[in-house]
């Protein structure tokens, strides 16, 4: 009898069947893929490069979208206050927001999974110490930690230096602020898994604690991590947008969805509503489809919620 390949098993799985028959999840996934492609392929599909000073003319500032009176055909969604093509700037800004979102979640997941796994598997003293550290971390909101670190860095090293490393610094700040979410979830899963028969069987045959922890327990604790990750990507993107809106996120010279909304907000009452409106719509749609996918994944992986 021929062994089916992984791809064949995947095509016949309940996961794929349920996903393809869930219109909300499928539509959300398609929209997310389109947004991801547009963001990461920005240098290829954007009409202008917002980082190239040769493409920017201050005399072109606040031009309305092309379909409105006063609009120009080369600026589909108009221009911002600096004269940059808004459509191109949004694509580049979305790429920055996505990089920060996925990068921060990768850092959160790495720290949280490692510490949660050790806390749940290594015993009472280690568990107590790590979970108290997590509790202290959770007592500070993400925005408080981010504002505190960003403000100190800008005051100590200057705005110019901050602009150079804004992306990795925001990934570090947002990622470090949210790792306890993963740690607490993984710890709870580990505490349940290590009491099961397969762990006892692994101990009986002489496998080391480290091997049991990494090779056997860890893979069985990752289902809730996938659900948390979808939600945390949306939260990280919102955190970056919120920080940019208050001036402690991405600088104006390196557009993100949040910084575009922040800059455009100053002009919304003067009639240049598109500078804020279009990046705001993209941000809302991006976060919405990620959250909808996260809800579907949560329902599918939870036997109490999944109805088939």
Automatic annotation (TrEMBL):
Source organism, top-level taxon? Bacteria
Query: Which keywords annotate this record?
Result: Cell membrane, Membrane, Transmembrane, Transmembrane helix, Transport
Major place of residence? membrane
Q: How does it sit in the membrane?
A: Multi-pass membrane protein
Keyword Ubl conjugation applies:
no
Listed transmembrane segments: 24-46, 96-119, 140-159, 165-182, 225-252, 272-294
| Residues of the ABC transmembrane type-1 domain | 94-294
Q: Which InterPro entries does this entry report, sorted A to Z? A: BP-dependent_transpt_permease, MetI-like, MetI-like_sf, OppC_N
Where is the protein found, in the record's own terms? Cell membrane
Annotated Pfam families? BPD_transp_1 (PF00528), OppC_N (PF12911)
Q: Which PROSITE patterns does UniProt cross-reference here?
A: ABC_TM1 (PS50928)
CC per GO annotation: plasma membrane
Q: Which GO terms describe its biological process?
A: transmembrane transport
Similarity-based family: Belongs to the binding-protein-dependent transport system permease family.
Can you say what this protein is called? Binding-protein-dependent transport systems inner membrane component
**What is the phylogenetic placement of the source species in the record?**
Bacteria, Pseudomonadati, Thermodesulfobacteriota, Desulfovibrionia, Desulfovibrionales
């Amino acid at each position: 009898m021929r062994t089916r390949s992984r791809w064949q098993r995947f095509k016949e799985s309940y996961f794929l069947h349920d996903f393809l028959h869930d219109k909300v999840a499928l539509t959300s996934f398609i929209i997310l893929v389109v947004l991801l492609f547009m963001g990461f392929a920005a240098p290829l599909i954007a009409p202008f490069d917002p980082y190239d000073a040769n493409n920017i003319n201050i005399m072109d500032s606040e031009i309305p979208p092309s379909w409105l009176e006063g609009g120009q055909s080369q600026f589909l969604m108009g221009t911002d206050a600096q004269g940059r093509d808004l459509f191109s700037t949004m694509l580049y800004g979305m790429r920055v927001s996505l990089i920060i979102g996925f990068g921060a979640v990768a850092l959160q997941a790495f720290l949280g999974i490692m510490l949660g796994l050790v806390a749940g598997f290594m015993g009472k003293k280690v568990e107590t110490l790590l979970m108290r550290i997590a509790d202290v971390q959770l007592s500070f909101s993400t925005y408080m930690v981010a504002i505190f670190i960003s403000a100190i860095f800008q005051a100590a090293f200057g705005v110019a230096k901050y602009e150079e490393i804004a992306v990795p610094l925001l990934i570090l700040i947002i990622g470090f602020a949210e790792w306890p979410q993963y740690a607490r979830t993984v710890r709870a899963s580990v505490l349940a898994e290590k009491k099961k028969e397969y762990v006892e069987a692994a101990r009986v045959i002489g496998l080391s604690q480290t091997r049991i922890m990494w090779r056997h327990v860890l893979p069985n604790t990752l289902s809730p991590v996938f659900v948390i990750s979808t939600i945390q990507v949306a939260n990280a993107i919102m955190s970056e947008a919120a920080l940019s809106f208050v001036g402690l996120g991405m600088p104006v010279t390196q557009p993100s969805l949040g910084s575009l909304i922040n800059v455009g907000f100053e002009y919304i009452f003067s009639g240049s509503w598109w500078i804020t409106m279009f990046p705001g719509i993209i941000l809302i749609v991006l976060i919405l489809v990620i959250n909808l996918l996260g809800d579907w994944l949560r329902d599918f992986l939870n036997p109490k919620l999944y109805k088939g």
